[in-house]
Amino acid sequence: MPPSVTTCAACGAPGSGNFCSSCGAPRAGAPCPGCGGALAPAARFCPSCGRGVGAARAAGGSPDRTPWVVAGVSLAGLLGLLLFTLVRQAPARPAVSGPEAGGGQAAAESPPDLSTMSPRERFNRLYNRIMRGAEAGDEATVTRFTPMALMAYAQLDTIDADARFHAALLQVHTGNSAAARALGDSVLVRNPGHLFGYMILGTVARWEKDDTALRRAYTGFLEHYDAEMKAGREEYTEHTNSVNDFRQAALDARSKSAGS
User: Fold this and answer.
1) pLDDT at position 122 over 80
2) Spatial distance between the Cα atoms of 36 and 30, rounded to a whole number of angstroms
3) If you placed Cys at 30, which of 10, 38, 85, 187 could pair as Cys (CB 3.0 to 4.6 Å)?
4) CB of 182 within 8 A of CB of 189?
5) What is the pLDDT of residues 87-112, one digit of tens each?
6) What is the C-alpha separation between 114 and 251, in angstroms, rounded?
7) Three-state SS for 103?
8) pLDDT for 250-259, tens place per residue?
């Protein structure tokens, strides 16, 4: 029996499968603009956060974009604060061959078939695309794909410290400091002393301009740095620049505090 053709709730493109081949959105419905959770096509409220979304959809308009407008207003300052962390921690991208290589702008922009990927592959693919957008100052790409990446994260079967680190940085971008902080705490609960936990909490503290929380994150990071590096965790090798940058910032802060 041939697959049924439906219209994507996010971009209106016809097609079949679990994800839209034009924009990558789940065909089950557009993501909630508040929390990124999946919405049924006719949903009036988000089942995850309770946000009202039905009025705009029923009128044929776009979902409430207020949170994204608010995030967009502060995006320039946020990216200035976070690009130091976001871009430098993004994993190196392997050389691309085949249709995506050397095909000009059209080939580079062709969306992958996310329905054929595992949740972790989708999360990594979307996260890397967001990082490239952040590095290029492409606000539209960052804003468009962040909810999709968070939805893919929510579908992961197993969640390690590396995935929590990536998801926390995305949550900070959406302005959801509480969710990012919870991810940082969860890293430390599951792996006491893990440097990513302190790096997440430090990033949130910078965003909130919470000097006390930032000092705690720096102190915890430096106290556990030597033991954690001896543990030889693979994620530290993949994010060497970010770990080194956070350590240097922590050392600078400690020196400044000692000299004052």
Assistant:
1) yes
2) 9
3) 10
4) no
5) 444 444 443 333 333 444 434 445 56
6) 42
7) coil
8) 999 999 988 7
Token output for 108:
């580079």
Report the C-alpha dihedral over residues 14, 17, 21, 27, rounded to 10 degrees.
Answer: 70
Buried b (16+ CB within 10 A) or exposed e, 192-227: ebbbbbbbbbbbbbbbeebeebbbebbebbbebbee
Q: Between the CA of residue 88 and those of 79, 129, 166, 181, what are the distances in Å?
A: 13, 14, 12, 21
Is the pTM of the predicted complex or chain greater than 0.85?
no
Rounded mean pLDDT, 49-74: 45
d(CA 260, CA 245): 23
- Classify residue 33 as exposed, middle or buried by CB count within 10 Å of its CB (0-12, 13-18, 19+): buried
Q: Are 204 and 184 in contact (CB under 8 A)?
A: yes
Helix (H, G, I), strand (E, B) or coil at 65: coil
C-beta separation of 167 from 174 below 8 A: no
